[in-house]
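Duplicate of earlier report; RNA-binding protein KhpA input re-posted below.
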Amino acid sequence: MEKDLVEYIVKSLVDDPSQVNVNVVEGEKSTILELRVASEDIGKVIGKHGRIAKAIRTVLQAATAKTGKHTVLEILD
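Output:
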C-alpha cells in the first residue's frame, strides 16, 4: 500500500513516470521505501528546501499511522 501511494504521488510530479522505481525493504520495526527517479526529475521530487519531499513523507506517515510500523522514504540518486 505504501509503495503504491508513493509511486502515485511521484509519478504525477515527474516528467518521466516510467523511470519511477520504489523498492521496499522490510525490517522488524520499520519499512524503508527507496525511491529512484530519472536524474533530471530529482529536483521536482525534492522541491525547494526539501518541501515536496517533506510533504510526501508526511502523507506517508499519516497513511501508515494505524499499522504501528515506522515508514521511511529515502530518495536515491
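Residues 52 and 58 are 10 Å apart (CA to CA).

Merging into the original ticket.
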